[in-house]
Amino acid sequence: MKKMQLALMAVAAAALLIAPNMLKSYGIYLLSYWLVYIIATMGLNLTVGYAGQKSLGHAAFFGIGAYTVAILMKAGVSFWLGLPAAALLCFAVGLVLGFPALRVQAIYLAFATLGFNTAIWLLMRNEEWLTGGTFGINNIARPELAGLSLEGNLAYYYFVLAVTVLLALLLWGLLRSPWGKAFTALRDNPIRAESLGVSVRSYTLLSFAIGAAYAGIAGALFASLVQFIEPAPFAVAASIMMYLMVVVGGPGYFWGPVLGAAVGVIVPEWLRDVPGVSDWYLPLFGAAVVVLMVWLPEGLLSIPDRIRARREAREASAARSAAAANVGAVT
Amino acid sequence: MSTALLRVTDLKKSYGAIQAVGGVSFEVRPGEIFGVIGPNGSGKTTLFNSMLGQITPDSGRIELKGDDVTKLGPLALNRRGVGRTFQTLQVFGKMTVRENLIVAAQEHHGTMWSRMFAPGDSGLGPKADALIDQFRIRHVADKKAGTLSYGQQKLVDIGMAFMSDPDLVLLDEPCAGVNPSLVGGLSSLLKELNQTRKGSFVVIEHNMDFVMDLCHRIMVMVEGRVMAIGTPAEIRGNKQVLDAYLGN
Amino acid sequence: MTDFIQLFMSGLATGSIYALAALGFTLLWQASGTINFAQGEFVMLPAFAMLAFMSFGAPLSLSFVLTIVVAVFVLGWLFKRGLVDPLFKFGMMPIVVATIGLSIALRNGVRAGYSAEAHPFPSLFADKIFNVAGVTVTLADVGTFGLAVAIVLATQAFISKTVTGRAMQAVAQNTESASVLGINVPRMILYTFAINAALAVAAALLVTPTYLAKFDMGEGLGTKAFFAAIIGGFNNSRGALLGGLIVGVAENLASAYISPAYKDAVALVIFMVVILFKPQGLLGKKEERKV
């Protein structure tokens, strides 16, 4: 990695570790909220950005993870069993959701995932005996880690940060491995990929399953963060926001989710506090998204690539002019 | 007489009332370059797609190394040692040339699970580099494939088909869109690959000089049927073929 | 039984409005691959525009015409040139997200900049009630249904019977071939956007008297139109009409016979069932994956 990237990462790491100590409780809570959405968005980035699938139902997995942990904890099961249970359940359900993806063309896959999200949301809303219906589940505790209570916002923040870093490293390792190239091949040209021995079937299913598992873990962390859950954050509107986060950050870029989740979670909050904005924070956010998309259709992180492409085009054009100038010169 | 690498027996495929392929039989021997020529609409593409598992023939048999592979799809065929190039370029634009070549063979090494979290190039770096040198595209090896010229992308496309050391490579109009001055180089390259790797090729092509120069044997298809199979000299001298297709 | 028929009839009226919005939505998709997540807001804005014109003293009919002109320019031409054209070659993702942003901006912009209240809107139809064989129907229901269906059928007739319409169809089915045939593809796509804008204004005219003009009226409407388009068949214009009517009637019946709380869930449930068993919609043609 280049020196500039390492320096940036060092600064970011320092900020993430130190800054919360200087923030008020709400600020720390917001940072944790952002980290949780980074995890969920990382999963969706794999499915949509790297593997090229259409998934507009990601919030359903987020919700399944949250409710799994909440329900299990209410039944006396430890958070530390609930978390892996949430991940595994979401992995399995994600695998199942991948099957329609194998048979159905892109736009219809998007609809199918919407339908799936709707079904899950309806379940959450109506099955009161299991999920508490619209009343939700409250008093979700924060866990204890080796005797240390994670009750406080700061302690829980560091815990969520650790999980985020761990999951990011796992994803990094996966994408650097042959799997990363297989996903990209699947995204860019599934017919060619198939003819080269890349199992479109396996990688499609796995892209859904792994993405779902990430959302499930995020949901589990979310439950203990907000300590009260109800169906609203897991509806289709939330899935659409998550999709927005992936695309705005930059689909297929590793750090895309960090920026995308920041745009989706932090920017609206920040805008709200800017003097004079008040009620206009949402329309401004919406307008910003439109402008951003028209200017940078491949997301915020496509800026370096665009600069590079423009530079290469200028160099090629200069080389051509130089060559053309020499054509006339005869000795 | 060595056994055939590929044997196609009485292959038939119709689309409704139109019989695209009406009973085609031929053999491809190990190590030979087998050309398939014929006017447009003669069924070459349908034949090709049947051999590659993209479509299922109505009847007939396709045998690869003695095994019946008639009903297998592209993935299974590739695992059994069949590679192909495409008429319209199909490289992975966002990956570099080297990455394109690596992904073309990585699924043949180990299992999915052994590849998870494994080093990025699956140990295929040296092999990819050898191919890059053979194709003389060293200077663009680290560029994104989508930024290359058409001719360079064509070479990458062909290289990808060979990375997994297939026994049989099907080339779909390799000269399409290629600058005439580069066609000769393409022909030499394919001959070189044929000699060093000892695989068999089946080539569909319209460029007659190219086909006559490159292929050991040629099959002429007209209206879904085989009109003649023979060496380039035999085909050039075949009156029926001349009348129907090549002209005087 | 008379209750059922009454509910059925008023359901048809609502459904026909969904059909208007769904038709525009489907046409946009077919012509340019655009999924317009702001379709609901495209109905909400004209409602407020008409109210604005009327507040300056214009009669409803003039306001309607003026709004169509403005809508065709803003929601048709400007939308296409400003948002869709630059993003066209980048695939579905950026357009989808941009229209999501647009819907957030428009919805909340009206709320912050104009009013968060619900405003009354004059109805085209007088407050009359008919009684046919014991069944009570309002003039508004009959009128709305008749007018909306007439507009939908007129649009479909335009598309299938006029030269321009057929050119638009050609563009929708195969853009490359159409341009090779000499059809001005960008203009045909522009016409589609213009028609969508006009259909949205018509929908606003018919739906706002009942639902009142409010900044969030587009949310529910947009979602229902989306479901209706998919239920009917996303690659078939006739599907929009069928889907809209099905959703309208089912909603009404469910609201009365099951519970008002389930009104919104009905469209969802039908949508899910269709997605599971016939993802291309009731009238849609099957499009298999080509791998």
What this model shows, in words?
The complex is a heterotrimer of chains A (331), B (248) and C (291). Chain A has 14 helices and 2 strands, in the order H-H-H-H-H-H-E-E-H-H-H-H-H-H-H-H. Chain A is mainly α and 331 residues long. Chain A has a single domain, classed as ABC transporter involved in vitamin B12 uptake, BtuC (Orthogonal Bundle), CATH 1.10.3470. In chain A, strands 1-2 form a two-stranded antiparallel ribbon. The longest helix of chain A has 27 residues. The radius of gyration of chain A is 22 Å and the shape is globular. The model of chain A has no long low-confidence stretch (mean pLDDT 89). Chain B has 2 domains: 163 residues, P-loop containing nucleotide triphosphate hydrolases (Rossmann fold, 3-Layer(aba) Sandwich), CATH 3.40.50; 77 residues, no CATH class. Chain B is built from 10 helices and 10 strands. Chain B has 248 residues and is an alpha/beta fold. In chain B, helix 3 packs parallel to helix 6. Chain B is 36% helix and 24% strand. Chain C is an all-alpha fold and 291 residues long. Chain C has a single domain, classed as ABC transporter involved in vitamin B12 uptake, BtuC (Orthogonal Bundle), CATH 1.10.3470. In chain C, strands 1-2 form a two-stranded antiparallel sheet. Chains in contact: A-B, A-C. Chains A and B meet through helix 7, helix 8, helix 9 and helix 10 of A and helix 2 and helix 3 of B.
Number of helices of chain C: 11
Tell the overall outline of chain C. Answer: globular
Query: How many β-strand stretches of chain A?
Result: 2
Query: What name does the CATH topology of chain C carry?
Result: ABC transporter involved in vitamin B12 uptake, BtuC
- Overall body shape of chain A: globular
Number of strands of chain C: 2
Blueprint (SSEs and pairs):
The complex is a heterotrimer of chains A (331), B (248) and C (291).
Chain A: H1 3-18, H2 25-50, H3 58-74, H4 79-103, H5 106-126, H6 128-131, E1 144-145, E2 148-149, H7 153-176, H8 178-188, H9 190-195, H10 200-226, H11 236-249, H12 256-273, H13 281-295, H14 303-327
Antiparallel strand pairs in A: 1-2
Helix pairs in contact in A: 2-7, 2-10, 2-11, 2-12, 3-4, 3-5, 3-10, 4-10, 8-10, 11-12, 12-13
Chain B: E1 6-15, E2 18-28, E3 33-37, H1 44-51, E4 59-64, E5 67-68, H2 74-79, E6 82-84, H3 97-106, H4 112-115, H5 125-134, H6 150-162, E7 168-172, H7 180-197, E8 200-204, H8 208-214, E9 217-222, E10 225-230, H9 232-237, H10 239-246
Parallel strand pairs in B: 3-8, 3-9, 6-7, 7-8
Antiparallel strand pairs in B: 1-2, 1-4, 4-5, 9-10
Helix pairs in contact in B: 3-6
Chain C: H1 2-32, H2 39-55, H3 60-87, H4 92-113, E1 129-132, E2 135-138, H5 139-161, H6 163-173, H7 175-180, H8 185-211, H9 217-232, H10 237-257, H11 263-277
Helix pairs in contact in C: 1-5, 1-6, 1-8, 1-9, 1-10, 2-3, 2-4, 2-8, 2-9, 3-8, 5-6, 5-8, 6-8, 9-10, 9-11, 10-11
